[in-house]
Design brief:
The chain has 422 residues and is an alpha/beta fold. It has helices at 94-104, 110-127, 145-152, 174-185, 204-216, 235-245, 265-277, 286-292, 309-315, 338-348, 354-358, 366-369; strands at residues 12-16, 29-30, 33-34, 37-42, 45-51, 60-61, 66-69, 71-76, 129-137, 159-165, 191-197, 221-225, 252-256, 281-284, 319-321, 386-389, 404-408, 411-416. It folds into two domains: 12-70 and 377-416, Urease, subunit C, domain 1 (Roll); 71-369, Alpha-Beta Barrel (TIM Barrel). Bound molecules: zinc ion.
Length: 422
Amino acid sequence: MSLTKPTSPLTGLANVRLPAWLLPAEWPQQHGEPVAADIRFAEGKISSLVPSQLEQDELWDVQGALALPGLVEPHTHLDKTFTIRRSRPSRPGLLAAIETLHKDRQHWSAEDIHQRAAQALAWAAANGVTHLRTHIDWFELTPPVAWYEMANLQQPGVTLQQVALAPLGFFADAEAANSIARAVAQSGEHCLLGGFIHSSNWDPAAMANLMHSATRWDLDLDLHIDEELSDKANGLVWLANYLSENEFSGHICCSHGCALASGTEQQQREVLSVLAQHRVTLIALPMTNLLLQDAVMGQTPRQRGITLLKEAQAAGVPVLLGCDNVQDAFCPAGSYDPLDTLSCGLFALQLDTVFDQHSHLICNPAPLTNTAQPELPLAVGTAASLVIFPGSDSVTWPLNSAARVVIHHGKLSYQRLWQAEF
Ligand SMILES: [Zn+2]
C-alpha cells in the first residue's frame, strides 16, 4: 500500500484499523474483526473516534491501515547502548556481560554518552515511541555523568524517564541508601529509584533500606529483580511479603522476574496475587532473557527464561514488554523498535491474535504511570499521537511491518515507507 502524503494541517484520519482491546465493547465488527475508525483531531488531541463512514473528504484516508497509539518502551539502558563494536564479551551469560560493560566505562565521557543516547532516542522516536524509560548504572553513592547527560537529552514527542540502577549492596547502609534516594528525588519528576537484586548479592536488610528510603523521598521504583532462573532467587517473594506488611505509597515496576517461573505454583500464585493487589507492574524482557538465561558456551539453551506473563495478566498484574539492552555486551542486536520486542514475544511467549489482543504490551502507558482509572489511549481528549503501519495487516503484523507513519499531537512527524515496485 502506498499512502499519498496528507495535506497539512491534519484534521484527522479516515479508515484506520485499531486493535480490539482499544475499542469499546459495542464497536461493530466485520468477519470477526473490528471495523475501521474515523478519528478527528483538534489542537493536538483526539476530538472524536467513530466507526468509519463512507465519505470523509476532509480526513486523510489511510485505506484500512493498522494503527496504534504512541509506542511505549519501558526498559532500556541508554548509558550502555551502541558499545558492542568496542566491547564484546568473551563468554555467554549475564555476569560476563556485566564484567565487559564495567571495562567499557573507561570510554564514558559526557560526549560519548550523549552521542550514543541521542542516537537511541532518535531511532525510538522514528519508530513511533512516545514514552521511553532508561536505567542508568550508579557506581558510587553520587550520580554518574550519564545521570546528568540523560537529564539534558531532548527528543521532541518522547517523554524520557530515568531510573538509578544501583547494586543492592549500596543500600546495605541506611545512610547511604538515604543519600542515593535523596539525590534521585532532587533530580526531578522523571526520575525513579532502582536496584539490581539477584541471588549473587541478596541482602534482605539492604532491601528494607531501599524500600524505606524510597518511601521517605516519595519515589517510584523500578527494580531489576530475579533476573535468573535459580529457585534460590528471593527478590519477588521478599517484595510480596514486604508489601503485605508495610505501607508503600509509590508505584513499583518489577523488571525481569525470570525466577518466578522456577518457583512452585503455590508460590507463583501468592506472589502474583500480592503484586496485583498493589498494582505492581511486571515488565518482561523476552529478547535479553532468551539471550542471557540458561546461556552455556557451546550448548543449546533448554529454558526460555521469561517471567510468567500470562499468569500475571490472568491475576490482574499490569504487564508490559521492553527491549532492555540494545547493541551492547548484554545484547548485540536491537533497533529501539517495540515491534521487534513483540515479534520476539509472539514466539517466546506463544501469543495469539497479537494485534487485536496483545499490542497493548507495547503501547499502553498506564502500567508505567499507575494512573488509578486510566483512560484508554486515543480516548477523546487524549493526545492525537499514533503510529500507522502501511502495508501490514492484522495477521502479518508485527512481522514485516517496518513501514511507519508517526503522528505526534496531530502532526505528521516521521515516515518510513517503501515502494512495492522496488
Ligand atoms: Zn535492564
